[in-house]
Amino acid sequence: MFSAASVETMLRVPRNKSDCCCRNVMTRVVLAEPAMAANFLAPVKTDKQIYENSMLEDDPNANSAVTHEEKIKPRWGPHHKGAQELANLYSKGKRIQECICVGVCMTLMVINLFFILVHLRFESLSSIVVAALCGIVTADFSSGLVHWAADTWGSVELPVIGKNFLRPFREHHIDPTSITRHDFIETNGDNFMVPVPVLVWMAWHFLTHSELEVQQRFSWTCYVFLLALFVAMTNQIHKWSHTYFGLPSWVVFLQEYHVILPRRHHRIHHVAPHETYFCITTGWLNWPLEKLRFWQALEWLIERTTGHKPRADDFKWAQKRS
């Protein structure tokens, strides 16, 4: 920042043409600096944008404030035609897959947690804490990357992944509260599937390696375990960020202190056209990634390379209002 004295010196009456040019340049720098700082620190979405371009999930009487047109052709919610079509695509086969994934993942989690507690040594606690924290941050970034990819690209019509994995993302944008009506299996089935191969490898590592070999890689093992745990729990945390009534007090505490994704924080993502704040585990990385324009840069690169428009399928489903 420039001091008052330096600003005064720069703005004195110039003695020659060169001095005049220098003064003009420095004046623009001084005046631009506060504007740049204000823009950098400005909120990603204003309260007005949130109110006008997202569903008011925290107000049970919000429907009384909608226009007549929105009652006939709802912009969001369970009465939206597109949301109803997408909800009906949830199949029995999908349910079976989710049940299997939840059962297998939870079993492997318990087995690996047991081995970790058996091999835990308090003299290495500091490195374990750092590794665990890195695992949580990695999970947050991973949630953002997967969320961004599924929100932005692909189509429900794609074979296998369309109805099974992209469908919930499309439904969620036009009926954000649908996730609060899903049970534990439907909410977490896909996320519990992701860490299964890693958890199998961890269990095999504990069972086939000596104590010395386990201790040599123990910090790395803790990193992978916390990464797997938070990846598995991401959609449950996401569900809590849409739940405004009846949450346990300990969940509200974690949200208020931003240990996990807060409700107010996640509202920013649900402002149409849903182009920012994709990280949904803790949300710690959302602000820096937005200021770096990380997602926008990826979208620009992919669009220039492939010609595909970001969020085209998402927009198509949003238009099916009646």
Automatic annotation (TrEMBL):
<keyword id="KW-1133">Transmembrane helix</keyword>
<dbReference type="Pfam" id="PF10520">
    <property type="entry name" value="Lipid_desat"/>
</dbReference>
<dbReference type="GO" id="GO:0016020">
    <property type="term" value="C:membrane"/>
</dbReference>
<dbReference type="InterPro" id="IPR019547">
    <property type="entry name" value="Lipid_desat"/>
</dbReference>
<comment type="similarity">
    <text>Belongs to the fatty acid desaturase CarF family.</text>
</comment>
<keyword id="KW-0812">Transmembrane</keyword>
<dbReference type="GO" id="GO:0006631">
    <property type="term" value="P:fatty acid metabolic process"/>
</dbReference>
<feature type="domain" description="Lipid desaturase">
    <location>
        <begin position="136"/>
        <end position="313"/>
    </location>
</feature>
<dbReference type="InterPro" id="IPR052601">
    <property type="entry name" value="Plasmalogen_desaturase"/>
</dbReference>
<feature type="transmembrane region" description="Helical">
    <location>
        <begin position="99"/>
        <end position="120"/>
    </location>
</feature>
<keyword id="KW-0472">Membrane</keyword>
<dbReference type="GO" id="GO:0016491">
    <property type="term" value="F:oxidoreductase activity"/>
</dbReference>
<protein>
    <recommendedName>
        <fullName>Lipid desaturase domain-containing protein</fullName>
    </recommendedName>
</protein>
